Amino acid sequence: MTAKVDLKVVLLGREASGKTCLVDRYLHDRFNFGVNQATVGAAFGAKKLQIGGHTITMGIWDTAGSERYEAMSRIYYRGAKAAITCFDVMDPTSFERLKFWVNELRNNEEHCKLYICGTKVDIAEGNRSGRVDVHSVSDYADEVHARYFDTSSKTGQGIQELFTAIAEDFIQSESKTRTLAADGATVPLARRDPVGSGRSAEPAGGCCA
Length: 209
Description:
Blueprint: E1 7-13, H1 19-28, E2 42-51, E3 54-63, H2 70-77, E4 82-88, H3 92-108, E5 113-119, H4 121-124, H5 134-143, E6 147-150, H6 159-182
Parallel strand pairs: 1-3, 1-4, 4-5, 5-6
Antiparallel strand pairs: 2-3
């Protein structure tokens, strides 16, 4: 079954950075503790939202984090309006890997809005000395013009706020584009999504891909 997707969102990040758990909590309000089967290729989910009198359908692509699937991930982020780049707040190497995807998007999808997402903050509460420095992440987010959110798929912390912000930013951007068009300004044509942003696929992953 296909459905029209207004807002294509892609999740990128290292394997086991919590991407699949993040989507599962947002779409289904659940957390499957202990399930960590890696996503293969990508999984798709969609949600209809009512934001400020607007109705939109958000399509979310959860991509595989393994480096061997990088080429495939590039297919899925094409045409995305928003990208959530995830890192495990207790894993500095996952934050360094996040920078790779930020550079990818900046070089290939310049109109895609970036959101940096720190995951598993519930674990950091008991071990603050071991987590990635919040100020370093915040400074980096400012540097690349991204919005930064800390989240926990276990407790739900920050997840609704993250996706609501994405939807609100999209609506604001679309309203601005329509205003420019009405005023006669030149507006760039949207790129076609080669994988079909409205195409549904069965989830192929577990909790913490």
